[in-house]
Design brief:
The protein is an alpha+beta fold and 211 residues long. Helices cover 23% and strands 20% of the residues. A 6-stranded mixed β-sheet has the order 4-3-7-1-2-10. The chain has a two-stranded antiparallel ribbon with strand order 5-6. Helix 3 (107-113) crosses helix 6 (183-189). The longest helix is centred in the N-terminal third of the chain and has 10 residues, at 56-65. The radius of gyration is 20 Å and the shape is elongated. Residues 2-6 and 207-211 have low confidence and may be disordered.
């Protein structure tokens, strides 16, 4: 199995398909390699416009053949005596469940929708310095919906308090709306290295989670 090490590759993401090739989850490389090593999943890789399936051993051998031809958008992990590429897509061999079509509204999905940008001051912050704000405060009857919850930095949250934006003389950067797909997936798709996901996730609802 690959060594964890401190490689940035371990911060990348892997799209998980069910047995019917429907996208169901997004996981990290550690979990992906565990599933592959235990023969619970296989790698799905694009080759010359077509897709090929690899079990763990076949994927390792494939990677050995092209270890000297790494591409800039690829993530590789060094094990004790070999290097292996982090797959972008894997397929579960014994999982048939179809994901829910509902979009989960939580801190991470709202932060992703708003691109970690405070919707009042317009600045981007790390997750630890962000919170959720109800545009119409809950104490004033505001609901916890996509259209009423925004990403907000701690300072702006304190400044706004239990008031509406108008009462606090604060203007929203953008009107909050319900996204068409999982914001976490949409954020990933902006990175060219996850472009191969589009064939699986366009029109699908996929949640990032620990599977």
């Amino acid at each position: 199995m690959p060594s964890a090490g401190k490689s940035d590759a371990l911060s990348s993401s892997v799209l998980v398909l069910n047995r019917s090739y429907a996208a169901v989850h997004v996981i990290g490389p550690r979990r992906a390699f565990s599933l592959l090593y235990c023969d619970l999943a296989e790698v799905i890789a694009a080759e010359n416009g077509r897709f090929a399936n690899y079990d763990f051993q076949a994927w390792r051998e494939y990677c050995e053949l092209r270890v000297e031809d790494k591409q800039p958008d690829e993530d590789w992990i060094r094990a004790v005596n070999f290097e292996i590429q982090v797959p972008r897509v894997i397929r579960l061999l014994k999982y048939d469940r179809v994901p829910s079509r509902a979009l989960r509204l939580n801190r991470h999905s709202v932060f992703a929708r708003d691109e970690h940008r405070c919707q009042y001051c317009g600045k981007r912050f790390p997750t630890s310095q962000l919170s959720l704000d109800h545009v119409i405060p809950k104490s004033r009857g505001g609901d916890t919906t996509w259209e009423n919850v925004v990403c907000c930095c701690l300072d702006c949250n304190i400044k706004k308090g239990g008031r509406t934006p108008q009462e606090a003389h604060m203007k929203l950067v953008a009107k909050p709306v319900r996204p068409k797909r999982s914001p976490l997936i949409a954020l990933k798709l902006r990175n060219p290295k996850y472009e191969c996901w589009r064939i699986w996730v366009d029109g699908a609802t996929v949640e990032a989670s620990v599977f």
